[in-house]
Design brief:
With 543 residues, the protein is mostly beta strands. It is built from six helices and 34 strands. The strands form nine sheets. The protein has a five-stranded antiparallel sheet, with no helix packed on it. A five-stranded mixed sheet has the order 26-32-31-28-29. A hairpin with a 6-residue loop joins strand 16 and strand 17. The longest helix has 33 residues. 20% of the residues are buried.
Length: 543
């Protein structure tokens, strides 16, 4: 029973739904055809005179009265563009804050002067200050007055005040008087402004410099300064402040920590906002990075370059030749002899410094061979004026240069005119054993002597000439120049000779041999495709 009644109800609902779909369109068609559907009443906008449209609007332009809408009134706009009263537009407010070197700019709402007077300095300034403030004024344009106070208006390191009013006689170009009787307070802020910014590098033991645009009281600055480590828990650092005076970058004040700073430490410094300038209300921050002090970091260096055989503290005796050289971690200013002390005393001590290699310098002296010297280097400064860290004493020993002789002659044949000095120039070092072998050459032996000067000079009939006395400046560690006169009026009268310069006596010693002669004739040879043409000229008379 229940199932049958439910099925019959479902069939009835479906029938009603199909009937609605069929009858709804028929009802709409019936209402339209019979005029039974009406909408709400509407009204069209009406005009007193119909407005033309399309091409008819062009034919009737500008149209009859009443066909256009009224425009916006111009009188308020003209009043705003040409105000009835002369007023000061800026600055606004009743106080003006001026930092050192700033000016006051006053702008009016009307032209005040003609174009011809713009930029000219005013002889009568239309401003009244109490107390009086000296300065200069110009019209930067026709409606803007710029007043620049004199430098003396700002106190050295504090603040002063003055009131300012406009002169009652100030008028615009059309004769209108300014309607502004307000009294404005002008604050002249002479607080020095810091010029130091960013991160600076300092060496250990060096003060932290601050630079300002004016003089600063060290006591006043110390009360408004905080110094702390950027690392290590941000610990504050005790310090003292010392004024250095005017320097190239401004007025310098040194902040000196009263405890040593660690190498590589980063130090921050905070100053109260009034020292920073600008409008910020935050402290001015300055940072410093602590670097190692410049120092001597190498010893016994090469003559050129920066390579050294020993470090700062070699811990042993250093063997040197003629020069003991040192290297700095930074470029140096020229060292002086007063900064060097040598024990025991050494002769002819000099300092050698090349500006092209500013990190190294050398000590040149007549070092005695096998003598150990103590060398102490005192106060040295870098090129930037920073004092170098003191170095420990050095122990140096000269081993001396090997005996050597250099002859200033090209080749093995030397010919001289008969009236020229018969001198052969040479240089020697460690010349106490150096000698020159002299062997005269007779007529007929010149060909063999010219071809074999070494064998000829080694003949037993010659003589040995010590060179030490001929080169008096030669030392065991220093070269000295000398000259050998191989022909004189004494025992060496031959006009031809074989010479051999030796660093030490003996046939095994290395030598430089020459064949020398003095003559009054000069042969000339000209070689052609046919052969050679030779002629001889006498130098004394040209025959």
């Amino acid at each position: 029973m229940g199932t049958e009644s439910l099925s019959s109800r479902r069939l009835g609902a479906r029938a009603v739904w199909f009937a609605s779909l069929l009858l709804a369109p028929l009802g709409v068609l019936f209402g339209v055809s019979c005029g039974g559907i009406t909408g709400p009443a509407t009204t069209e906008p009406s005009h007193a005179v119909p407005l033309p449209t399309g091409l008819s609007a062009l034919e009737s332009f500008p149209g009859a009265p009443g066909t256009t809408r009224p425009a916006a009134p111009l009188e308020p706009l003209l009043a705003a563009d040409r105000p009835e009263s002369l007023v000061l537009v800026s600055p606004r407010g009743n106080s003006i804050h001026l930092r050192r070197g700033q000016s006051i700019s006053l702008r009016f709402n009307r032209p005040m002067v003609s174009r011809a007077t713009v930029g000219d300095r005013l002889t009568a300034i239309p401003l009244v200050f109490r107390p009086a403030v000296a300065g200069s004024a110009t019209w930067s344009n026709r409606s803007t007055l710029v007043f620049t106070p004199d430098e003396r208006a700002w106190p050295a390191s504090s603040v002063s005040e003055a009131t300012m009013t406009l002169d009652t006689a100030l008028a615009s170009l059309d004769g209108a008087l300014v309607e502004d009787g307000d009294e404005r307070l002008v604050v002249f802020d002479g607080t020095p402004r810091i010029r130091t910014s960013g991160t600076q590098s300092i060496t250990a033991g060096e003060p932290m410099p601050l630079f300002f645009d004016a003089s600063v009281s060290a006591q006043e600055l110390a009360r408004e300064l905080l110094v702390f480590e950027a690392d290590g828990g941000h610990r504050t650092l005790p310090f003292t402040v010392r004024a250095r005076g005017v320097q190239e970058r401004g007025f310098q004040v040194d902040v000196v920590p009263t405890r040593p700073l660690q190498l590589g430490a980063r130090i921050h410094m905070a100053l109260t906002p009034r020292w920073a300038g600008g409008t910020s209300s935050y402290p001015q921050m300055v940072a410093y990075s602590v670097l190692p002090r410049p120092r001597i970091d190498g010893a016994n260096c090469r003559t050129s370059g920066l390579r050294c055989s020993a470090d700062r503290e070699p811990g042993e005796v250093l063997d040197i030749e003629q020069e003991f050289s040192l290297r700095s971690s930074e470029p140096l200013s020229a060292p002086t002899l007063s900064a060097v002390r040598v024990r025991p005393a050494v002769q002819n001590l000099t300092v050698r410094f090349d500006p092209e290699q500013p990190r190294r310098f050398g000590l040149v002296a007549d070092w005695e061979p096998d003598q150990v010297y103590e060398v102490r280097v005192g106060d040295l400064d870098t090129a930037g004026g920073v004092r170098l860290e003191r170095t420990p004493p050095y122990a140096v020993r000269s081993r001396g240069l090997q005996p050597a002789v250099r002859v200033h002659a090209v080749g093995q044949l030397v010919a001289m005119e008969s009236d020229a000095p018969a001198d052969i120039r040479f240089a020697a070092v460690h010349a106490d054993t150096a000698v020159a072998r002299y062997v005269p050459v007779a007529n007929g032996g010149e060909a063999r002597a010219a071809l074999f000067p070494t064998q000829t000079s080694g003949a037993s009939q010659g003589s040995s000439i010590p060179l030490q006395a001929l080169a008096p400046d030669a030392r065991p560690n220093r070269w000295g120049e000398g000259a050998l006169r191989w022909r004189d009026t004494g025992s060496r009268r031959a006009d031809m000779a074989a010479l051999s310069f030796r660093a030490a006596a003996g046939a095994q010693a290395q030598s430089h041999a020459l064949f020398v002669q003095q003559t009054d004739i000069a042969p000339t040879v000209r070689v052609t495709s046919r052969g050679a043409l030779v002629w001889v000229t006498k130098l004394s008379d040209g025959s």
